[in-house]
Amino acid sequence: MFTFTPVQVTTDDQYLFRIDQNIGKRDLLWGSWLQESFPFTGTIPFPGTGASLPGFGEVNQQHFKLLTLSWSHTLNDHMINELRGGYNRFNYAAVDPAQVTQPSSLSFNITPQDPAGAGVPAIFITGFFNLGFSQFGPQPRKDQTYEVVDNFSFSTATTP
């Protein structure tokens, strides 16, 4: 039986910005921006779904962006309005083969739906080792969420 410790090369860049600003006596503006890029490459595909030997590596790209903004305006002692907005984006291109290999180049009668994500089919030799790329890749995904909220507050309370 052959065993080894897989290597994963990772870069993780994160950026965070925040602003808090009073604009006059009646307006407050604040916001934040978070961005993260987390690409990594592994010597084997997604664990447990493909090769247990090196040579069938995977590439993943993960990118996150989050934006939040808020503006509060005091109209008078009894009324305030707050406008908030948010944006979240998750861009995930994962379980892509590090080495694109068309199965037909190895005499397999398989035509991948996405030729750019083609790899050697997963072959399991029980009790010994596994060959080939992940059974579950590639897994591209882009999620985006937008939010806008406006709150108007009115108070009838009086101060003594």
Summary, kept brief:
0% of the residues lie in helices and 55% in strands. With 160 residues, the chain is mainly β.
Explain this structure.
It is a single chain. The protein has 160 residues and is an all-beta fold. It has one domain. It has strands at 8-10, 13-23, 27-37, 40-42, 58-76, 79-97, 123-125, 129-131, 139-154. The strands form two sheets. Strands 1, 2, 3, 4, 5, 6 and 9 form a seven-stranded antiparallel sheet that branches. It has a two-stranded antiparallel ribbon with strand order 7-8. A hairpin with a 2-residue loop joins strand 5 (58-76) and strand 6. It is rod-shaped.
Which features characterize this protein?
rod-shaped, 160 residues, two-stranded antiparallel sheet
